[in-house]
Amino acid sequence: MRPRLPGIIVILALLVPGFAKAHPHVWVVVRSEIAFTPDGKVRGVRHAWTFDEMYSAFALQGLGKDGKPPTREELAPIAKVNAESLAEFDYFTFAKHDNAKAAFGPPEDVYLEADDKKIVTMHFLLPLETPVSARKPFSFQVYDPTYFVAFDFEKQDPIALAAAPSGCSTSLVQPKPLLSAETQKLSEAFFSNMSPGADFGIKLATRVVVACP
Fold first, then answer.
1. pTM for the whole thing?
2. Nearest 5°: phi and psi at 112?
């Protein structure tokens, strides 16, 4: 059974030949910044998601002039579609505070930009519904549970802190290697164009941990 996908990705799957014949369907490189309130609480996570060449090429069709990439204003309608459709999927961002689920509110400061190579990056802030104490463990992961979208953190400087209290730090906890049966399941999903499972994405997800004294 194929999972439901964010609206813009569904359109891409329908219009781009061969798009639905590979697994995963979209590749995203992630950079994240943990935002803090003036009194030192964790306010939320600001994401920058850089999409692969195929998604970028589709998103930019008919946009831009004289061979130049389109402006943020031209990309605003696509940013709106992405923000609205990703809400159903919790923005693929799953956080914990003191070992309990931490819920996010609607995104803020959403925009898309395209670089000189016409690669698209989506920027947005995911504010927590209620800011949380930085002195208790806060962590988050970015993943699509069905692994139709593959998220990987940037290799260099993937995480930053914004206005953090003195002494705060971050670390990345890498996922455990897949078991042989799980690797086989992923391989079969690739060739059958089916999801490897509703909870497969978490098996490949890196966890970002924020620690403050």
1. 0.82
2. -115, 150
Architecture of the domain spanning 24-209: Distorted Sandwich (2.70)
55-98 pLDDT, tens per residue?
888 888 878 777 788 899 989 988 888 888 888 889 999 999 99
The residues spanned by each domain of the chain are: 24-209
Each residue's pLDDT tens digit, 126-174? 999 999 999 999 999 999 988 888 899 999 999 999 999 999 999 999 9
Buried b (16+ CB within 10 A) or exposed e, 57-66: ebbbeebeee
